[in-house]
Design goal:
Elements: H1 21-28, E1 32-36, E2 39-42, H2 44-63, E3 67-68, E4 74-76, H3 77-83, H4 85-89, E5 94-97, E6 103-106, H5 111-121, E7 130-139, E8 154-164, H6 167-187, E9 192-196, E10 207-213, E11 219-223, E12 230-232, E13 252-255, H7 262-269, E14 277-284, E15 287-294, H8 301-308, E16 313-315, H9 318-323, E17 340-344, E18 353-359, E19 362-367, E20 377-379, E21 398-412, H10 414-418, E22 422-424, E23 430-432, E24 434-441, H11 442-452, E25 454-455, E26 458-459, E27 470-474, H12 480-495, E28 500-502, H13 509-519, E29 523-527, H14 529-533, E30 536-541, E31 548-551, H15 555-564
Parallel strand pairs: 3-7, 15-17, 17-20, 27-28, 27-29
Antiparallel strand pairs: 1-2, 4-6, 5-6, 7-8, 8-24, 9-10, 10-21, 11-12, 11-21, 13-19, 14-15, 14-16, 18-19, 21-24, 22-23, 25-26, 29-30, 30-31
Length: 566
């Protein structure tokens, strides 16, 4: 491709709307353009990278026995009603109505469609195990698109679905696909960590995310450097310390004038925050809910939503708190009526806590569960943070940021049960298919590669997915031989199957070198009057400072050898 003819131009200034490094560089390099919020156009250079990433994914999915198909974007809404996931996906679903007034969904994922399809096509255990996958466009009405291609509303995803006869088969499929994912990331030059994750709206039992470490990543990852425990902050657990406190003492009301905040109460009473029971008010699917947790901890909204099995969870408003008869800063679960009470299990690790007296300016001392108050639901709703104790080995946890580049789920039978997706086992007994699903966003991968592989000059593409292998950069000057030789070299390289971006523009060396660095093509070949005199050309890898001289004779062979040796 001649650069003078390439559709899409480089930009010198950093676009004001771009926050992440990948967003900035992909826009500046003329690889993507924003169409509207959360929707992007892939320009020719960006699309070449996208297609090469897709090729790597397809190779590895085929290698483990996956069969590619194509499922429809438009899905009947009643499929989502049958699964019940129209509630969990809620407002993120894009819906349309056709001319016959039938409601349709622009697919955010394809579990419903694939389950209904397999229900129609699978009859016997002899058809199992089965791996089906596609590369398809998805639609989710994200409330806060950000980071360019990292969080968008229209995106391409490889999603694979496994079907097995039992849980042991699912475990095997899950491991096979997870290992294939690791191979893909290695080939793409992406160091990843596999961490425990929340299944979210997809559902199912266990799930894991593959995370690329990045300072501006969208997710918090909690990890133990001692034993290797890792989990998304939405899922992470910690070992909670028993605060002690001795035998339960009589309840005592004490004055705490104007002391509403946990630290204010702790300082006033000269006790640690862990000796106080904190109350947080929520609305869970419209139901006013009181959550009790130790004062040194915070509530994890994702864990709470999963515990309550609600689709909409938010902090209660001041008016909702007032209507429930509660007083912010002095509330507690003691003596409450007609209010759902949820408690973190930390309240059982200690005794004689301080809690609000449900009266302005007063708290109770020596509050104990279950003697003094009732709880409707109890479990772990703690937001795990750096500095907390590892639940596996007891060492101190650390935190870092990451970009999710893959998510795998053990769905089990909850969808196959709803769609009657079953098979006849060896004994002729009908049993539900045991399912897994495995997602990988291609745009996220593209962005993550840039986040991991760049410098202050631009992108540094891994050779496997670079839009072109070679950036041919003639510096024309006053020697007419440079132009004719550049044309010959361009033809020679292409004849050997080498992908070349030929900078045939009559621009200064500075502009050409800056564009070469910004675009991140792996190998730059620079032809100048000086190199022509020596029957040579300058070769420089994008990721190295030094260059080497290659003879013009048999240049294509030399270039092929260079790529074979990296």
């Amino acid at each position: 491709m001649r650069l003078s003819r390439l559709f899409g131009k480089t930009v010198r200034q950093v676009p004001t709307e771009a926050e992440s490094i990948s967003h900035q560089l992909l826009l500046r390099a003329g690889m993507i353009l924003q169409e509207t919020t959360g929707v992007y156009i892939y320009l020719p250079l960006g699309w070449r990278v996208f297609e090469k990433i897709a090729m790597v994914i397809r190779q590895e999915m085929d290698r483990i026995g996956g069969q590619e198909l194509m499922l429809p974007v438009l899905q009947p809404f009643d499929l989502w009603e049958r699964s019940g996931r129209h509630v969990s996906f809620s407002s993120s679903l894009f819906t349309v109505t056709d001319r016959r007034e039938r409601k349709l969904v622009l697919g955010p994922t394809h579990e419903e469609v694939i389950t209904e399809l397999v229900h129609r096509c699978i009859q016997s255990y002899r058809d199992l195990p089965l791996l089906l996958y596609q590369v398809q466009t998805k639609f989710r009405d994200e409330p806060r698109p950000r980071g360019g291609l990292i969080r968008v509303r229209e995106f391409a995803m490889k999603d694979m679905y496994s079907f097995d006869a039992d849980e042991a088969g699912l475990a095997k499929s899950y491991e096979i696909v997870s290992q294939a994912y690791k191979v893909i990331y290695t080939r793409l030059g992406l160091p990843v960590r596999m961490v425990e994750a929340d299944s979210g709206a997809i559902g199912g039992k266990d799930s894991h995310e593959f995370m690329v470490i990045a300072d501006n990543g969208e997710d918090d990852i909690i990890s133990c450097p001692a034993c290797g425990y890792s989990a998304n902050a939405e899922k992470a657990q910690s070992a909670k310390v028993d605060e002690g406190g001795g035998l339960p003492l009589p309840l005592e009301e004490i004055a705490t004038p104007g002391k509403r905040m946990i630290q204010e109460v702790a300082s006033f009473l000269d006790i640690p925050a862990s000796r106080i029971l904190k109350v947080v008010f929520y609305s869970a699917d419209g139901e006013f809910t009181l959550v009790v947790i130790r004062g040194d901890l915070e509530v994890n909204d994702t864990k709470l939503r999963n515990m309550l099995k609600c689709s909409e969870l938010r902090l209660a408003t001041e008016s909702e708190v007032k209507d429930a008869g509660m007083i912010n800063g002095f509330a507690s679960p003691l003596n409450v009526r007609n209010v759902k009470v949820v408690a973190d299990d930390s309240i059982t690790l200690g005794s004689n806590f301080v809690a609000g007296a449900n009266k302005e300016g007063f708290h109770f001392r020596n509050v104990n569960y279950p003697r003094d108050f009732h709880v409707d639901v109890m479990g772990d709703v703690t937001l795990t943070k750096a500095g907390h104790t590892c639940p596996m080995c007891g060492d101190e946890l650390i935190a870092y940021r990451g970009i999710e580049v893959g998510h795998v789920f053990k769905l089990g039978t909850f969808l196959s049960d709803k769609f009657d997706a079953s098979f006849l086992d060896r004994d002729g007994v009908s049993r539900p298919l045991v399912m897994g699903c495995y997602g990988m966003g291609l745009g996220r991968l593209l962005a993550a590669i840039v986040e991991q592989s760049h410098d202050d000059k631009g992108i540094i593409w891994p050779a496997l997915v670079a839009p072109y292998q070679v950036y041919l950069c003639p510096l024309y000057g006053s020697d007419p031989k440079v132009a004719s030789l550049a044309e010959e070299i361009y033809g020679e390289l292409q004849a050997q199957g080498i992908e070349v971006l030929f900078d045939d523009r009559k621009e200064s060396p500075g502009i050409k070198f800056n564009d070469a660095d910004l675009l991140g093509i792996p190998l730059r070949l620079t032809l100048s009057p000086r190199t022509v005199k020596n029957d040579s050309i300058e070769a420089k890898w994008r990721w190295e400072k030094q260059f080497q001289m290659l003879p013009l004779e048999n240049l294509a062979y030399s270039v092929v050898q260079l790529f074979q040796n990296i």
